[in-house]
Give the backbone structure.
Amino acid sequence: MKIKSLLIAFAALMAVMLAACSSDEPGGAPEEEIPEPAFTDLELSEAESRANAGLEEFNIRFFQSAVAANPGKNIAVSPLGASMMLSLMANIVDDELRGRILTALGSDNLEALNTLSRRYMDVLPTLDPSVTMTIANGCWYRDSYTISPQFAGILSESYDGETCAGDFTGNAGGVAEEINAWVNERTGGMIPRIISDANQIQQLLYVLVSASYINGAWSVPFDREDTKPAVFHGEHGDSNVDMMYMHEPLYENNGSDFGHFSNWKSVSMLLGDGKYIVSFVLPREGFTIDDIIAEGLFNSSFLPLANNTELYLPRVDFKGGELRLNPMFADLGIAGLDELRQTKIFTEPALAENHVFQQSAVRFFEEGAEASSATYTIGASHGGQWYPDPVYRFDQPFLFMINEKSTGAAILWGCIRDL
């Protein structure tokens, strides 16, 4: 089935993990115009199409939960990274917990979620040769156990990842360095480490990692000579920033085009040849970004080109800290991840708690955008209306979304409250 519809929400960009050990290691547009949105057909089976559609609500609810868990803070998360990690974990948990995961992901078909992940892995990094995009998955595990052939096969076939046995007791420091080096490479150096020290490794049975990276030039770039000092009116006070500026035709989207969705407006910029889109959302007067997030009705429809759009956008270089996803998943109905439960990752019987984390980073600069995300699970053995000549001035808190347009893949979503 061809997927040409965009998600009800801006989809933001993520990703996952590849192998790094060996066979057993994880591996401008012209000024007068910009290109029309180019849609790439992703051939999905009927089951995969239903699974893809089911992720729409998950993406919004996950973002809402992440913002609620980090009130008043800048935040960037990858809904795609979170959903792929949950899909992967559904293969190793017990039936009860698997059911909760599938319900949260809006699907009743784990096989379809697995094969959908492979579609993402195969297609997203190859959509646009002018945009660097990588997705990688990997699993490190304690070498006193034997990895389940069924899980190793699913990881390889559906997630393009491999497994790596490691000495979690005698060489814990070496294992930690190996995992961190793998993540650092696959996130373009934006996320240098996810394992703090050797002591952490000694407490674990396995580490599942999903990492992604995207770097692309704007189809219409900013001119560095137009970047000027300006004031950003943050939630906790004013700050001085470098404000980028352009006066170009851009894709425009206003919430008022959708009836009562009148509390926000947005403008979107394309990366590379137009397969990836970055949307920036401003609250209208009298509203806040939390009002927008609460409604959960972001819309990624494209309006006709808005001529002579004035855009003021601050440079952003944001690296978020480690976010613990278990409480956010519990809000979505996935309770019990961190309970000691039987795991199917090994051939031998083993009990494990699953603690899921995510780190993300994003940069917006004159030439383009760069973003990365790492989602990882550690298995512990213990217990709108179109307005002519619009002006968009992002000198107050705003939302951003990085999406792949044809699939609705939510690569990275976030909010900037203070700079």
In short: Residues 46-69 form the longest helix (24 residues). The chain is about 25% helix and 30% strand.
